[in-house]
Amino acid sequence: MSLSKRIIKETQRLAEDAVPGISAVPHDDNLRYFDVTIDGPSQSPYEGGVFKAELFLPDDYPMTPPKIRFLTRIYHPNIDRLGRICLDVLKSNWSPALQIRTILLSIQALLGAPNPDDPLANDVAQAWKQDEQAAIQTAREWTEKHAKP
Amino acid sequence: MDSDDDFNSSQMSDEEFMGDQDSDMSLGDDSDYQDDVGFETQDKDIKPTKHSYEVEFKVFNPAEIQSHQDKQVEEVSSILGQEPEATAILLRHLRWNKERLIDRYMEQQNEVLEDAGLGETLHTHPPRIEQVPGFACDICCEDGEDLDTFAMKCEHRFCVDCYKQYLQTKIKDEGEAARIRCPGDACNRIVDSKSLQLLVTGDLKNRYQELLTRTYVDDKENLRWCPAPNCVYAVQCPVKDRDLKKIVPTVHCECGHFFCFGCSQNDHQPAPCALVKKWMKKCEDDSETANWISANTKECPKCASTIEKNGGCNHMTCRKCRNEFCWMCMGVWSEHGTSWYNCNRFEEKSGFEARDAQAKSRQSLERYLHYYNRYANHEQSAKLDKDIYLKTEKKMTQLQNTTGMSWIEVQFMDSASQALQQCRQTLKWTYAFAYYLARNNLTEIFEDNQKDLEMAVENLSEMFEKPIDQLKGLKVEMMDKTAYCNKRRIILLEDTADNLKSGRFFWCFQFMLLDMMLTID
Ligand SMILES: [Zn+2]
Ligand SMILES: [Zn+2]
Ligand SMILES: [Zn+2]
Ligand SMILES: [Zn+2]
Ligand SMILES: [Zn+2]
Q1: Domains in chain A: ranges and CATH
Q2: CA B451, CA B445: separation in Å to the nearest integer?
Q3: Of B104, B137, B208, B224, which residue is least crowded by CB atoms under 10 Å?
Q4: In what residue span(s) does the RING-type domain sit (chain B) (predicted)?
Q5: Residues B303-331: pLDDT tens digits?
């Protein structure tokens, strides 16, 4: 069973058939470690921001999901201070048929649709529920401050 | 104990909670189960009499659990007209609630099948491994005409190697069995047991069966695994979660372990599960330690210099201004009598009033420590009981050699040791119990029972320290004291269980919010 074939194919596709607003480039010395960027979706407080993340494919990938963490600070109820992401497809709803690109698209979608009812960052989720407009404003400010190239 | 009384009261209580029983007491209502419970201890057969603190229970081995599962599947299978494999999935899907399954199946058959991942009947399309032209596996990216592939009805097709590895990850690493989903993205179809039969082989098959059996017990409200390490038995007991404020269901596994059916902790009679949880959390709580540390230094109420308490005495004298005061309430010492802090029982004197929040917090800390020290002391002693037991064995051997006593004759040491262990365990929990107990006339009876048991235990415990050569002469005395200990324990537990059952205990609000326990039906 050649999992590396899968990883090679995925990597090739990511390079040749790039998804707009998303990039994932493997390190030369470690083909399981990717530098990722995700553009903030339009119509969201993250619009105009470019968010850096790191992605790692564990040994038993794709039987277990990739590990992903934001490196750029982001104000979002489902992303904590360490950049960890609360997203079902990265946990219980992972399927080995999913790919890096589909996961990154899911994360981009999460930026466009925060879910404060399933929070990872409790304080942010609380703020989001209490005063959504103010929270969105804060998210915008953070994007301006941390995510502008 | 008067055995007639015991019998009557147990009949009453059994009816009380048998009355609550519905058909999910299913392991018990099978008549042939009664027959093959071969390991029902003789003890239980000889004296069916139960004390009011004892509950009905049965112990089952893995083979019995498996055969009962099979029987239920067979039975429901013929009712639904479904194959056993599909029936098993349906039953597990509805957590072995067979009435609910049958009802729902009769009403909305297609929906139930869909929910359980069985959209269409399996026998028209039995699962099989196929080679499909032009196929490429989405998981490993392999392709080729001769690649073995597999898909369920949902047509999420992957190569057999990937499918197998996926199942292995789920079963071995994640411990899943009854509800493994199709590896396809966002597919909710459950991998049925026929497909699993095809794809799960070797050691993994055993692990899978094991996990399935475990799910059965986990899903049944009236079954629980014995928590003892490496124990394979499950215990069945009719006590439900909602009964736990009134009953403390200690059960006794075949492996010898006594545990609480309600919470799986070690036997904690007479304290109810919720109280035990509260108490353990309190004991663990860091803030309590912090309180304790801060409570060791205070300011003199007169000159405000820092005073450290380094002895047990509450009569403090400030080194600087010679002010004599009481550590507890910070009041002037001369106003106090000398016996108010009599340490035997925690006294909350009626004339005594905490003057401020600090004094109140100190008082509640003192109260907690009073009970905690005694609780911890018995816990410590319970650990020493293991040593005592080993020493007992050694002493028994010595007795046989030096006195010519037979093995039967030295059994009294073993019984005494066992009684000590059990009584200390009970005593330990009476202190947690007393901590939360609100004071009324029942409290006094409880404390008297506690005191009587404690004295009986210490008297018996003392005898273990006698030299070996005297032990033979103490046989009768030790047997008497052992019997007395056991009797005191039964009295305490019966009294407490009766009052608990009838909701006559009240709990201190200032120390806890045990509202679920305060609800009296
Ligand atoms: Zn599927
Ligand atoms: Zn494959
Ligand atoms: Zn056991
Ligand atoms: Zn319990
Ligand atoms: Zn005082």
Answers
A1: 5-147 (3.10.110.10)
A2: 10
A3: B104
A4: 133-347, 137-185
A5: 777 777 554 344 567 877 888 765 555 66
Residue B483 alpha carbon to ligand 4 centre in Å: 27
CB contact under 8 A, A96 and B156: no
Contact residues, chain A, for B162 at CB < 8 Å: 1, 96
CA distance B320 to B3: 66
Asked if residue B202 has pLDDT above 90, the reply is no
Which residues 6+ apart lie within 8 Å of B152 measured at CB?
B127, B182, B189, B191, B192, B195
Pick the residue of A1, A7, A13, A59 with the most B CBs within 10 A to test the interface with B by mutation. Answer: A1
Between B367 and A78, the more confident residue is A78
Spatial separation of the C-alpha atoms in residues B457 and B419, rounded to whole Å: 9
B299 backbone dihedrals φ, ψ, rounded to 5°: -100, 140
Element (H, E) at A44: none
Sign of CA dihedral B486, B488, B489, B491: positive
- Asked if A1 lies within 8 A of B158 by C-beta distance, the reply is no
Q: How far is B169 from chain A (nearest CA, A)?
A: 7
**Contact across the interface for B169 and A95, Cβ inside 8 Å:** no
Q: How confident is the model at residue B392 (pLDDT cuts 50, 70, 90)?
A: low
Instruction: Provide the shortest C-alpha distance from residue A100 to chain B (in Å).
Output: 12
Report the alpha-carbon angle B180-B183-B184, nearest 5. Answer: 130
User: Contact A1/B141, CB-based, under 8 Å?
Assistant: no
Model pLDDT, residue B334: 63
If you measure CA to CA, which chain A residue comes closest to B162?
A1
pLDDT > 60? residue B344: no
**CB–CB contact A1 B165 (8 Å):** yes
Alpha-carbon dihedral sign for residues B211, B217, B221, B223: negative
**Are B222 and B25 spatial neighbours (Cβ–Cβ below 8 Å)?**
yes
**Span A123-135, mean pLDDT?**
88
pLDDT over 60 (residue B22): no
For residue B157, the chain A residue with the least C-alpha distance is A97
Task: Tell me whether the omega of the peptide bond preceding residue B127 falls within 30 degrees of 0, making it cis.
Answer: no
Prediction ipTM score: 0.87
- Asked if residues B278 and B272 have their Cβ atoms less than 8 Å apart, the reply is no
Residue carrying the six token digits 């404060």: A116
> pLDDT digit string (tens) for A70-100?
999 999 999 988 899 988 899 889 999 999 9
Residue B493 scores a pLDDT above 70? yes
Q: How far is the CA of B227 from the centre of ligand 4 (A)?
A: 12
Proximal ligand: closest to the CA of B334: 5
B138, B142, B169 member nearest A63 (Cβ): B169
Tell me, yes or no, if the pTM score tops 0.90. no
